[in-house]
Design brief:
Blueprint: H1 3-9, H2 11-14, H3 16-34, H4 40-51, H5 56-81, H6 90-101, H7 105-139, H8 143-154, H9 157-160, H10 165-180, E1 182-183, E2 190-191, H11 205-221, H12 241-263, H13 269-283, H14 296-320, H15 326-337, H16 346-349, H17 351-372, H18 376-384, H19 387-406, H20 409-427, H21 433-455, H22 460-469, H23 471-486, H24 490-505
Antiparallel strand pairs: 1-2
Helix pairs in contact: 1-17, 3-5, 3-17, 4-5, 4-15, 5-6, 5-7, 5-14, 5-15, 5-17, 6-7, 6-14, 7-12, 7-14, 7-17, 7-18, 8-21, 8-23, 10-21, 11-19, 11-20, 11-21, 12-13, 12-14, 13-14, 19-20, 22-23
Length: 506
């Protein structure tokens, strides 16, 4: 780094006003992210309305803090109440909530905080060192590659479906159908609306998430209303170095998954977290516990990935002017309002802005560590409340969060309907994770497939040929085939075949 670069990097560190704005943004972002329905995108959008007259550095410092804090904050309620505060925390709930049920909420939040910060730092390092190269790779993704990525995501139902693969596939397919409700993006015709005008806008996946995770869990807990709440151990919030060191290799792998997925335009921390969770489930041979029953590995992988995805999302935004996710799309709007043009010329014409952003992201992650490790005792008390108080509070929080999305009472009805439906699904042994996965990935798969086929002039054989002739598409196709084989009865046969061949050679 040159002297001028260093001065831009530490600008937010040395200016008391920028320092306070970053701290305030990070702290408020944690609590915004913890409330279901109050998304980070919404918070940053609101900030634009009253920061447009500010100096650009002041506005960016506040918004960067809210962004980092909001992505992390969703893990708090995911761990404590099984209600992901943000879509990026969906995968966190799979093992985070079972840990809280075991009385380990304090340790779970402590571990997730430190791991989140590590993932955030890895994302920032990649942003600082490899931004142009990563952005260049992201630009090579054609619609067929996004289709393959979405298929890979849908194949995660094997990791999320519990004991029954069939039930997982059913839940995933149901989620895809829910995700396709609304107006067709190409023809503007209604799909699965049954003539109902209120369904033309589609089913917002956050509404489905709150219903299936929050309300359904509250209804399930009614069966255990007389059971005394588990006392949470909050004496050892900060884990020992030996505990953290054990999980560093997994955290690094998950972080790079997060950076890569975050750099792909239109994706985000939710897909990155789910892919990282699946990676952990496939690669960790001896987890601390069975996945889905409180494995720390199932907590560490998604928390590393969703925070690393922040740095990844900044890569295409700052270098190409293409948003990596919904929040960076809002950031692009903010930069335009302040007279700046994100894109290839940004780093040439205004290099100070790039290095200021990198330095401010580092500062926000430091504040994330401080604020994340404080207030855990207060948060943990939520789990220790009597169920007669906690369950109504969860339902009220779910209603408020849902109504806040679009100020629509119809959304509240849908959320409650999803909650009741989710309750019956859980009662009969179905997992709700695959449903949310389908709701998120269904539209992406639909749009990508149609764009890919249209790019070949509706020639399906030519589309299939592109999957194996393009190097990037070939790699993704092979990954999809491997995942399919790995989740079927063919996999044990393949392993036996190779073991037999090895024995014959020896």
């Amino acid at each position: 780094m040159t002297e001028s670069t260093l001065s831009y990097f530490f600008m937010a560190w040395l200016n008391p006003q920028l320092l306070l704005l970053t701290a305030a943004g990070t702290l408020s972002g944690i609590y915004v992210g913890a409330i279901p329905g109050l998304s980070v995108t919404m918070a940053v959008s609101i900030l634009i309305s009253f920061t447009f007259s500010w100096d650009v550095n002041n506005a960016l410092a506040l918004m960067v803090g809210v962004y980092c804090g909001g992505v992390y904050g969703g893990s708090r309620t995911a761990i404590l109440l099984n209600i992901p505060g943000a879509p990026a925390a969906i995968a966190t709930a799979f093992d985070g909530f079972p840990l809280a049920q075991r009385g380990e909420a304090g340790r779970a939040i402590g571990v997730s905080t430190i791991i989140s910060v590590m993932g955030g730092f890895i994302g920032i390092v990649v942003l600082a060192l490899a931004a142009p190269k990563v952005a260049e790779l992201a630009l090579k993704f054609a619609p067929r590659d996004y289709l393959l990525l979405a298929i890979m995501g849908l194949l995660l139902v094997g990791s999320l479906s519990g004991e029954s693969m069939a039930k997982g596939l059913f839940a995933g397919a149901l989620g895809v159908i829910l995700g396709l409700v609304g107006m067709d993006p190409l023809t503007a015709e209604g799909r699965f609306t049954f003539g109902t005008v209120s369904l033309l806008g589609g089913v917002h996946f956050v509404i489905a998430m709150i219903g299936f995770f929050g309300v359904s869990e509250a209804l399930v807990q009614l069966h255990q209303i007389d059971i005394k709440p588990i006392k949470q151990d909050v004496t050892k919030i900060i884990p020992s170095w030996s505990v953290i060191a054990k999980y560093i290799p997994l955290s690094i792998r998950a972080s790079f998954i997060g950076v890569f997925i975050g750099a792909l335009p239109g994706t985000g921390g939710d897909i990155a977290a789910l892919l990282a969770y699946d990676h952990a489930k496939r690669t960790v041979k001896k987890p601390s516990r069975k996945f889905g029953e409180g494995a720390y590995e199932g907590l560490i992988a998604p928390e590393s990935a969703n925070n690393a995805a922040i740095g990844g999302a900044y890569v295409p935004m700052l270098t190409l002017g293409i948003p990596g996710d919904a929040v960076t799309a809002v950031f692009i709007g903010a930069l335009f309002i302040h007279g700046l043009k994100p894109g290839p010329m940004l780093m040439i014409e205004t290099p100070h802005l790039f290095w200021f952003t990198v330095g401010d992201l580092v500062l926000a992650n430091i504040f994330l560590l401080i604020f994340g490790l404080t207030g855990i005792r207060v948060f943990a008390k939520m789990v220790e409340l009597r169920k007669g108080i906690l369950i109504p509070a969860i339902i009220v929080l779910s209603v408020v969060g849902t109504y806040a999305i679009k100020n629509s009472l119809m959304d509240v009805y849908w959320m409650l309907g999803f909650g009741i439906f989710g309750y019956f699904l859980k009662t009969y042994g179905f997992q709700v994770g695959p449903i949310i996965l389908g709701v998120i990935l269904g539209p992406l798969m639909d749009e990508s497939y149609r764009q890919a086929v249209m790019s070949t002039r509706n020639n399906v054989p030519a589309f299939l040929l592109d999957l194996v002739t393009n190097p990037l598409s070939l790699v993704l196709t092979l990954a999809v085939i491997f995942m399919l084989v790995n989740q079927t009865r063919l996999w044990p046969w393949v392993l036996k075949f190779f073991k037999r061949k090895k024995a014959q050679i020896n």
